[in-house]
Amino acid sequence: MTTPAPNPLAHTRAAVLGYGSQGRAHALNLRDSGHEVVLGLRKGGPSWQRAQAEGFAVAEPAEAVKGAALVAVLTPDMAQPALYREAIAPHIAPGAALLFAHGFNVHYGQIEPRKDIDVVLVAPKGPGALVRSEYARGRGVPCLWAVHQDASGAAAAKARAYADGIGGGRALLIQTDFREETETDLFGEQAVLCGGASELVTKGFETLVEAGYQPEIAYYEVMHELKLIVDLFYEGGLTKMLEFVSETAQYGDYVSGPRVVDTGTKERMRAVLDDIRDGTFARQWIAEHQAGLPNYRRLKQADLDHPIEKVGAALRARMPWLQPAKEEPAPLKVV
Ligand code: NDP
Ligand code: MG
Ligand code: MG
């Protein structure tokens, strides 16, 4: 009989910095898994009160870091370098673990962690709300995990213990490295999930409206109904989507899809990936952030001002099932 390896996080304290989408889910799950958790948050911010109301010990980040065997950095990515410099680097204990849910700052050198600590990644493949709700059902959301730096000799065991603590071990743990996690995450959101999908939708809307069709009908066809298709992808891939659409829709898919998204599109996807891999995108985004986000704000405003947004808002107001109940908290980030 083999005895299970000891849990390197047992009887230690974890500091979770951030109580947003991921932070809240991780903190609640770790606590329910028997870990001692302290939240490191900005005094006076909305998270401070919420975490306290949900029964957590709360301190300013630097205080939370002191004495923690593991520090999970779950604030927005662009806020992490300053947080590392000011609250983590001066206070994290030698041999402790610094944990990220996305590899951006370490991979692109925005955080150069002290050499005497472990640096690991545990990235759930789902939004925080699902990480929590699956855990509460006795299940879990699959997680990627990786080790960037192993000072203690137990970095991998710590990453896996943390992934177990948030429920990922009940589902699936996939080992990766910071580079693969970072580059694939950025590519997915840029080329397909956010960038690709929104351009496909708005260009489809413009094509119909410019050809004289009513914007309300165009909205239903290219944006509203996308959810039905994406849900089928999510539940059963291309197979289920094809099973649940008409023969006519299938034939149109086979002959017209590749006319719209063609090998030229794929070449441009490769160019997007090249910019991610050689650091061009990261350099631009960091410079944009440092400049106070002028292009980000302009491009965002252009999306918000697109005619599809106006017609969409009016139509969604007539879909009562979409209106959140008054007591529901604001939605959190999903990618
Ligand atoms: P959120 O935007 O939800 O984080 C908000 C939290 O961070 C709040 O508690 C906020 O506190 C705190 N915060 C914001 N700015 C600062 C700051 N300058 N200093 C200290 N605390 C701050 O983040 P996510 O959960 O979306 O992302 C966290 C990490 O997880 C990121 O690395 C992200 O890439 C990764 N990730 C996210 C996923 C997701 O589903 N969203 C999926 C997988 C990984 P306050 O209330 O005081 O403002
Ligand atoms: Mg867009
Ligand atoms: Mg991302």
Overall description:
- This protein is an alpha/beta fold.
- An eight-stranded mixed beta sheet has the order 3-2-1-4-5-6-7-8.
- Bound molecules: NADPH dihydro-nicotinamide-adenine-dinucleotide phosphate (NDP) and magnesium ion (2 copies).
- Its EC number is 1.1.1.86.
- Belongs to the ketol-acid reductoisomerase family.
What is this structure's SSE topology?
Layout: E1 13-17, H1 21-32, E2 36-40, H2 46-53, E3 57-59, H3 61-65, E4 70-73, H4 80-88, E5 97-100, H5 104-107, E6 118-124, H6 128-136, E7 143-149, H7 155-165, E8 173-175, H8 178-193, H9 195-210, H10 215-224, H11 226-244, H12 247-260, H13 263-277, H14 280-290, H15 294-304, H16 307-316
Parallel strand pairs: 1-2, 1-4, 2-3, 4-5, 5-6, 7-8
Antiparallel strand pairs: 6-7
Helix pairs in contact: 1-6, 8-9, 8-13, 9-10
Bound molecules: NADPH dihydro-nicotinamide-adenine-dinucleotide phosphate and magnesium ion (MG) (2 copies).
Domain KARI N-terminal Rossmann: 1-176
Domain KARI C-terminal knotted: 177-322
Cofactor: Mg(2+)
The span between the termini is 43 Å
**Average predicted confidence as pLDDT:** 96
**Global outline:** globular
Integer count of domains: 2
Count of helical regions: 16
Strand line-up of the largest beta sheet: 3-2-1-4-5-6-7-8
- The CATH superfamily of the largest domain bears the name NAD(P)-binding Rossmann-like Domain
Indicate the structural class: alpha/beta
Bound molecules: NADPH dihydro-nicotinamide-adenine-dinucleotide phosphate, magnesium ion
Task: Report helical residue fraction.
Answer: 40-55%
Q: Which CATH C-level class of the largest domain is it?
A: Alpha Beta
Please count the beta strands (DSSP E, at least 2 residues each): 8
User: Quick one: biggest sheet?
Assistant: 8 strands, mixed
Oligomer description: single chain
Radius of gyration: 22 Å
Instruction: Note the run of SSEs as H and E.
Output: EHEHEHEHEHEHEHEHHHHHHHHH
> How much strand?
5-15%
The CATH topology of the largest domain comes to Rossmann fold
- Low confidence ranges: none
Question: What's the architecture of the largest domain, going by CATH?
Answer: 3-Layer(aba) Sandwich
